[in-house]
Amino acid sequence: MIAVLGAGTMGNGIAQVFAQHGHDVVLRDLGQPILDKALGSIEKSLGKLAEKGRLSAADRDAARARITTATNLGAVSSASLVVEAIVENQQVKCDLFRELDGLTTPETILASNTSSISITKLGAATRRPDKVIGMHFMNPVPLMTLVEVIRGQATSDASTHAVMELARSLGKTPVEVNDYPGFVSNRVLMPMINEAIFCVYENVATPEAIDEVMKLGMNHPMGPLTLADFIGLDVCLAILNVLHEGLGDPKYRPCPLLKRMVDAGWLGRKSGRGFYRY
Ligand code: CAA
Ligand code: NAD
């Protein structure tokens, strides 16, 4: 059984992909209304894949039936793998990893879907740092093929191999990287998104114009501001703070406009408003 912790934007996609590939999944979040919303998103996504012929009706129903939900952390104690996808906050994640270490069997691999936080620190919160690893899926999980696999200072070859193989069995392409702030994906992506936000802040152009330039000019599927809304502006700010503090270089300073939008609760698509309205 696979346990997925956090049923937000990423957790529901991760649970879905494991279930599509035959795994029983327990999806855990803090309250039942969040879990009900997540199940609704999963059903919608499975329905779309079936409509397009990428999944048979029987496989769609079987995948849905493999997912159960829980609010009690004890429900994950018999998991063979835990994938953590809760808020991008180091202290909250370290506290959870410490608790998971006491709850799960010593063989269980504890993976984090963190965008930027130190896998080494998460490992050090447990007595099994060799079994703590980054398993970083991309949004939207059912459609994106990359899984960035992050080795912490003490992550073993065996854990890395197991997670790389598991990612392949889900139809994904794993890429192994080392543990530095933001890894590869967000060290490269977030400065671009931040620079696009500075362009709005300094009135270089409207959000629509900036996105159009990057879509038509660079063939990006989404403009950087549409993508920031899609990721979540709170998540983007948390990642930029990790890059800024972790690498100590002022070039990663989050744009004041991003901070102000997060303060206002404009978190992008998930809150109904960001650079655009939804
Ligand atoms: N499940 C199933 N189907 C989905 C879906 C989901 N979760 N999300 C979208 N789809 C469907 C759409 O509904 C659409 O179906 P229709 O054709 O029936 O409308 C279909 O997939 C294709 O979507 P679109 O036509 O809207 O657009 P598209 O061809 O551009 O594809 C996309 C969508 C794959 C999301 C594409 O826009 C894209 O690649 N965007 C960039 C995504 C990206 O960069 N992700 C990485 C974010 S960073 C990250 O994840 C790391 C981090 O730590 C922050
Ligand atoms: P989100 O805000 O959509 O969801 C987070 C969920 O975690 C919420 O439902 C919240 O209730 C829950 N939660 C908070 N504390 C919890 C706890 N102690 N136990 C269980 N659940 C708890 O966030 P998200 O965008 O899904 O991001 C989750 C993780 O995935 C973060 O580490 C983020 O950096 C990473 N990530 C995000 C994206 C993205 O595009 N949004 C992409 C890749 C990785």
Record keyword descriptors for this entry.
N-(1-d-carboxylethyl)-l-norvaline Dehydrogenase, domain 2, alpha/beta, binds acetoacetyl-coenzyme A, 278 residues, Rossmann fold, binds nicotinamide-adenine-dinucleotide
Provide a descriptive summary of the structure in words.
It is a single chain. With 278 residues, this protein is of the alpha/beta class. Helices cover 48% and strands 14% of the residues. An eight-stranded mixed sheet has the order 3-2-1-4-5-6-7-8, with helices on both faces. Helix 1 crosses helix 2 (32-51), helix 2 (32-51) packs antiparallel against helix 3 and helix 7 (185-201) packs across helix 10 (233-247). The longest helix has 20 residues, at 32-51.
Structure, briefly:
With 278 residues, the chain is an alpha/beta fold. Helices cover 48% and strands 14% of the residues.
- Shape category: globular
User: According to CATH, what is the topology of the largest domain?
Assistant: Rossmann fold
> How many structural domains in the coordinates?
2
Distance between the termini: 36 Å
**Average pLDDT, to the nearest integer?**
98
In the CATH hierarchy, what is the superfamily of the largest domain? NAD(P)-binding Rossmann-like Domain
CATH uppermost class of the largest domain: Alpha Beta
Number of separate strands = 8
Helix proportion: 40-55%
Walk me through the topology.
Layout (H helix, E strand, L loop, with lengths): L1 E4 L3 H12 L4 E4 L3 H20 L5 H9 L1 E4 L10 E4 L5 H14 L5 E4 L6 H6 L7 E6 L8 E6 L5 H13 L3 E6 L6 H17 L5 H12 L5 H8 L1 H15 L8 H8 L15
Parallel strand pairs: 1-2, 1-4, 2-3, 4-5, 5-6, 7-8
Antiparallel strand pairs: 6-7
Helix pairs in contact: 1-2, 1-3, 2-3, 7-9, 7-10
The structure holds acetoacetyl-coenzyme A and nicotinamide-adenine-dinucleotide (NAD).
